[in-house]
Design brief:
The chain is globular, with a radius of gyration of 19 Å. A hairpin with a 2-residue loop joins β1 and β2. A 3-stranded antiparallel sheet has the order 1-2-3. By secondary structure, the protein is mainly alpha-helical. α2 runs parallel beside α4, α3 runs antiparallel to α4 and α4 packs antiparallel against α5. The protein starts with a helix and ends in a 9-residue tail after the last helix.
């Protein structure tokens, strides 16, 4: 077999990485746009009703979910943890690019885009801009949604596969 034929037969993973970075970019850009609109349109600590069950509330969350670690002392730890998590996911994607199905790769992209969106907030605003308020749940943002949905879809995807051990 010629060298060029051998190269054509190899799986490079470029297509897989395109799905990863598509999810990554889509999540990050949508998160940044939504937060820019909120910061421009709604004063901090203000809220307005969209529907009876949905309010848009501009708050800055210095911690993580449910108000955990909301002291400014934890900000460097949260920034460092976000950078490490993002780096590990990117390295993992590049290492496993030829072995993973497209759907989980896209999910990892959504998770990474969400992590980066909240990381940017922590660096610029010293807290995460949250605005989706159902009044029965803590206020959250699109980055949080992408992270949670990405993880949930990964759990569902791998819980329904017989070869789930091949993920790692």
């Amino acid at each position: 077999m010629s060298e060029s034929a051998g190269k054509r037969g190899r799986k490079t993973g470029i297509g897989t990485l395109i799905f990863f970075y598509s999810g990554f970019l889509a999540a990050f850009v949508l998160d940044r746009i939504s937060k820019a609109i909120i910061l421009f349109m709604i004063p901090e600590n203000s809220s307005f009703e969209v529907f009876r069950f949905l309010h848009i509330t501009n708050i800055k969350n210095p911690g993580i979910c449910f108000g955990f670690l909301d002291s400014p002392v934890y900000l460097p730890v949260l920034i460092f943890a976000s950078i490490i998590a993002l780096g590990l996911i990117i390295v993992y994607m590049h290492k496993k690019k030829t072995a993973l199905p497209v759907f989980p790769v896209f999910c990892f992209g959504l998770i990474s885009g969400g992590i980066l969106g909240n990381l940017v907030d922590r660096i610029i605003h010293r807290g995460v801009i949250d605005f989706i308020d159902f009044r029965v749940w803590p206020v959250f943002n699109l980055a949080d949604t992408f992270i949670v949905c990405g993880i949930a879809f990964l759990v569902l995807f791998y819980s329904r596969r017989k070869d789930a051990s091949g993920m790692f």
